[in-house]
Structure formats: C-alpha cells, structure tokens
Write a structure and sequence with these properties.
Layout lengths: L2 H16 L6 E3 L14 E4 L5 H12 L3 E6 L5 H13 L3 E5 L5 H15 L5 E4 L14 H29 L2 E6 L14 H19 L4 E8 L6 H15 L2 H4 L3 H6 L14 H10 L9 E4 L6 H17 L3 H8 L3
Parallel strand pairs: 1-8, 2-3, 2-5, 3-4, 5-6, 6-7, 7-8
Length: 332
C-alpha cells in the first residue's frame, strides 16, 4: 500500500468514526420480549451432543423449527437422550451422524438432511469446536491439526456442503460460533484464538460473497460459559502434556501446571444465552440479520475491535463494493 493510499484509508476511517455506528449486535436477555417463532425453518446444527449445540437443538425445536441435530459416533447415549426427549415432548428433532472431520460423513449427513426436507435447508449452525490450550509452542502438529480441522476446516466442509441447496432455493443463513477470542488474544490459549480468528475471517468473506445470492452469515461471539468444553479441554490438554518434551514443558511452568486442571467452575453465565441469541437473529428478516453478535452478560472486549474493523472495511472497500458496506451495517 502506498503512503497516499494509507493516508486516504486513515482519513476515511476517521471520517466514519465521527458518525460512529455499532458494528456488532450486543445481545442481552429481555424477559419482556415475545419468544421468536421459528415455525417452518429447517435448521442443521453440528456438535449437538452437549453445550450450545444440545441446548440450541431443543430450543429451536420448541420454537417450532425442524431441527437436524448432528453429532459424531452415533449411536451414543446423548443421541438416545435427545431422541427420547423429542418423542416425549413432540419436538421435530432428527439426530444425524456427522463428524465434521470427515468429508464422507459431512457429505452423507447433509444429503440425509436434504432428502428429509425435499432438498432445502434454511439454516446451518456451525457449532462443533474444541479447545486445546497451553503455550502455543507446546501445540505439536497433532494438536494443531486437530484444532484447525475441527474449528476451521469443519465449518468449511459443512458450509460448502449446504451452499448448493441454499443457492438453488435462493435463500439461507449460516451461523458460525466463534468466540471473544476470535478477536482478542489470550496468552496460553493454544491455537484456540488462531482457529477462531481464521473462522471470523472466513465467515466475513462468505458474508460478502454470498449476500448477492440471498444467503446470509452471522458470527456469534460468546464469552466464557460453563459447558462441557472445559471437561473436553482437560482431556486434550492432559494428552498433550504426556507427549510434550520435558524441556518445552519446563519453559512454561505456571501455564503447564494449569493444563488439564480447568473446570469452568468460576463461570456462572447461562449457556442458554447462545441459543436465545441465535433464535433472535433467525426471527429477523434476512436483510436485518447482523454480521456479528457479541453474547455474554460480562465484559465484551471484542465489540470495539469489531467496530473499527467494520469502519475500516467500509472505508477501504465500501465505495466500490456496496455489499461490504451493506453487510457491515446490517442489523445496526
């Protein structure tokens, strides 16, 4: 970039800052709000064996949606429990086996969903994800590949699998579960931030490229919530420690001591915030669904970063690419 281009970008960004806007929807629970109606929407969710995915599957179905709850290693107890609940309460939930690491399972699972719906799908929620924490130097290639394969390549596999059907019907929405750490770096969080940064970038690029086709993208940015991610993280972290060279472990004694010991007990926020926030987005008209939604009752440090990012994108590209401006202003 030339000095002139750089000055023009800074000038345009500063001008936009005068008329500041909220580039991120900050979700907050409103007890007086009427529950959204998702009747008629078909929704495929990944990673529904626990956490946000499991809660979302039940919540969306109770709001009238037809839900396809995907998880790996079916049959399993979590699948049977969800199917029993659906049968007891008359919820339209179908469990589908999908391991987002497998091209074959993604293709087969998505096709099963499309066969059940007559070839259409309204919403994909890319929720499946993992965290392997500790100093990033300790993240060997086994841990690094697993993190990126789950948190980045998994959503890519799923999104590419559903887009032909959405494009054919002329509508659809992709919801990607990111994190505050998709914008803010936390030391000793391993490859979690790098994977979520990558997911944020890919999601935004998809948003620009798919908007002209009538397909939307929303990035959900949760803070820390007490879900099974802590238990799963401890398992991955313990395995990583056992195969890490002593010389590397000794370089980070305090961080290594915490690996495998976190349980999330200090977090009291309600994980239902996430399905509530997604349902609110899906109840809005397509052209009003925001690009980013920050969700947590506490600190949301990513919001300011999101605002600056949106202003910069508009300043740099908004003049010659109206879609960039429209996507960043959507829902504000």
């Amino acid at each position: 970039m030339s000095d002139l281009d750089r000055r023009q970008l800074l000038t345009a960004t500063a001008a936009l800052g005068v008329a500041s806007f909220d580039a991120t929807r900050v979700w907050a629970q409103d007890a007086s709000k009427v529950a959204p109606d998702l009747t008629g929407q078909s929704i495929l969710i990944t990673g529904t064996s626990s956490g946000f995915g499991r809660l979302s599957a039940e919540h969306f179905a109770r709001l009238g949606a037809t839900v396809f709850a995907s998880m790996r290693n079916v049959p399993r107890d979590e699948a049977r429990e969800l199917e029993a609940l659906a049968d007891k309460d008359g919820l339209d939930i179908t469990v589908v086996e999908i391991d987002v690491l497998s091209d074959k399972q993604v293709k087969r699972g998505v096709q099963k969903v499309l066969n059940a719906t007559g070839g259409t799908l309204d919403v994909l929620v890319n929720n499946a994800g993992i965290g392997i924490t500790g100093p990033i130097e300790l993240q060997d290639m086994e841990a690094t590949q697993l993190a990126f394969d789950t948190n980045v390549f998994g959503p890519q596999r799923m999104t590419r699998a559903v887009l032909p059907a959405m494009r054919k019907q002329g509508s659809g929405h992709i919801v990607n579960i990111s994190s505050q750490l998709g914008r803010v770096i936390l030391p000793t969080a391993g490859n979690y931030s790098p994977t979520k940064f990558a997911l944020e970038a890919a999601s935004e690029q998809y948003a620009y490229e798919l908007a002209p086709q009538g397909i939307g993208v929303t990035i959900i940015q949760p803070g820390g919530y007490p879900t099974d991610i802590w238990k799963n993280r401890n398992r991955y972290n313990t395995m990583l420690k056992t195969r890490s060279p002593k010389s590397r472990l000794e370089a980070y004694p305090q961080a290594v001591a915490r690996m495998g010991q976190e349980d999330g007990s200090g977090r009291s926020a309600d994980p239902m915030d996430i399905p509530h926030a997604i349902a609110d987005v899906l109840s809005e008209p397509m052209d009003q669904r925001p690009l980013r939604v920050a969700v947590h009752p506490g600190n949301k440090p990513q919001v300011k970063i999101n605002e600056v990012s949106a202003q910069t994108q508009i300043a740099m590209l908004g003049g010659r690419n109206p879609t960039v401006k429209a996507v960043n202003l959507r829902g504000t």
